[in-house]
Specification:
Radius of gyration: 14 Å
Distance between the termini: 14 Å
Low-confidence stretches: none
CATH architecture: Trefoil
CATH class: Mainly Beta
Structural class: mainly beta
Amino acid sequence: MPDNLRTGTCNIRSLTEGEPYIGIPLTRPNAVPVIALPSVPVYQWDITKVGEYKYLLGIYTYIHTRLENKSIFAFTEGADQEWYITYKENKDAYTIGIKDDGTGWTVPVPLEGVGPRYQVEVAPIVSTHSLPPQVSAAQLFRFEYAS
């Protein structure tokens, strides 16, 4: 599948084990954590292209997403954060970062003795020194459009 990211409404899925949907819980405060959902998407994402590789991401009535203390949250109000979304052709998926600085959205893996951790975080993008570089599935995402 070619690089087809565009402005519109879609679902976002992680390529980590089980390919969970990325979304928000059903609670309705002013800010909610962006989490990995193991089954079906609850709400679709709204994507707006604002520049080369730069996008705004919102979900449901939470029209702003941004980094807060190394984790991703969705907000009903406040400033927008631009996300750098880069296509990785060899995996037919994308990385989502704050800047072109080598960090990106990460679906944490469960830690032994701690249990599952589902909130999406920002961490250094882990890639191999091979050609093409291989990126961790926990940092790769697919955008699924209805049409």
